[in-house]
Amino acid sequence: MSTRWLDDAEMTAWVRLAAVLELLPGVLDSQLRRDAELTHYEYYVMAMLSEAPKRTLRMTALAQRTNATLPRLSHVVKRLEDRGIVERFPCPEDARATNARLTAEGWKKIRATAPGHVATVRRHVIDVLTPEQISQLADITGAILESVDPEGNLSEVYRR
Amino acid sequence: MSTRWLDDAEMTAWVRLAAVLELLPGVLDSQLRRDAELTHYEYYVMAMLSEAPKRTLRMTALAQRTNATLPRLSHVVKRLEDRGIVERFPCPEDARATNARLTAEGWKKIRATAPGHVATVRRHVIDVLTPEQISQLADITGAILESVDPEGNLSEVYRR
DNA sequence: AGCAAAAGGTTGTAGCTACAACTTTCCTGC
DNA sequence: GCAGGAAAGTTGTAGCTACAACCTTTTGCT
User: Residue ranges of the HTH marR-type domain (chains A, B) (predicted)?
Assistant: First the structure.
């Protein structure tokens, strides 16, 4: 079976996307690290918790919303717990499960951190695109996510 | 100074892009790791070398084309050298500089690996998009790269 | 009921990346 | 022609992620 190589247009798009994949996380991480001693993933964990009812989510749900594996989340939450940013407690309905909750301190921290982070996202992504491109980007990433998602356990937001 | 938060359309695009940033590298890495014991970054290093004249590039040039810092590249190249995939030798014109060259074995390896990798890229990115979307993606990532790029040392491919 | 399999988490560890510190060579101005 | 700084790499190390192994509780079957 013979390989279908990429033509010029496809190659350009792919090379640039690969560069974004390589560079953008570093930009986000270093702003958050500098201003709040957080990684982008840690920020995302806090953000998902802050939007949940009672600022609480089960580990599995949190892992899904943050696009991470459970082991990764477990390690991260432990570190955040040591820093007083989240707390864990057993889930009453299911003795296997663990709930993670954003503490008052964590809530204060993300409120203080959000403006700087949003400004960074705006500066490097949103504000360099036209409204039309933003809509195109949502469609494009939506299509990619559908194919990347193993068995349909994406968050609702990704659904097209 | 007050924060301009993201509206719904902006938020959707950003959340999805963030998910792609988180998930796509893992997909690429695991295919390459499974089939060739390579990370995506290692593959990229080999690919850039394979396209260069004499399959040779100076470390700085290679770092730039692979969107990485020099320390990172240095570590990676050392490991590839230990595996007989690349070799390093001092640059004749500049005694500070080091050249990296793809070995015959490395050349064979990337030729054997490329079809599987391209198939993965097609499956998860290129083939899920229309030709129009591919062109849009190139423009969008081009704009992001310009803003992310610190002082204009991007490869030519990124220029719009 | 009782047992196997699945679901939910945690822990240990190897490996990769970021950051800082350091060495050597080259360039510039005086 | 020679200091001082920039450029090119390398190395050491701390920290994060992936992967595998493990434990406990729940579910499904019969």
Answer: 1-146
Nearest to B20 among A9, A131, A141 (CB): A141
Q: Are A152 and B38 in contact (CB under 8 A)?
A: no
Identify whether the C-beta of residue A110 lies closer than 8 Å to the C-beta of residue A124. Answer: no
Q: What is the pLDDT of residue A149?
A: 77
Q: Which nucleotides of D are covered by protein (CB under 7 A)?
A: 7-13, 16-21, 24-27
Q: What is the CA radius of gyration of chain B?
A: 18
Q: pLDDT digits over A106-154, tens only?
A: 999 999 999 999 999 999 999 999 999 999 999 999 999 999 975 555 5
Distance B65 CA to C25 C1' (A): 24
User: Residue A90 belongs to what domain range?
Assistant: 36-113
Structural domain contains residue B127: no
Residue B112 in contact with partner chain A when CB distance is under 8 A = no
Identity at A18, one-letter amino acid code:
A
Q: Give the pLDDT of residue B157.
A: 56
Number of domains chain A is built from? 1
Dihedral sign computed on CA atoms, order B73, A20, B148, B51 = positive
**Would residue A101 count as lying in a domain?**
yes
Q: How many CB atoms lie under 10 A from the CB of residue A92? A: 8
Contacts of B15 in chain A (CB under 8 A): 157-158
Footprint of strand D on the protein (CB under 7 A): A 39, 41, 68-69, 71-72, 75-76, 79, 94-96; B 26, 29-30, 33, 58-60, 63, 70-71, 73-75, 77-78, 88, 91, 94, 96-99
* pLDDT (tens digit per residue) in B67-115: 999 999 999 999 999 999 999 999 998 999 999 999 999 999 999 999 9
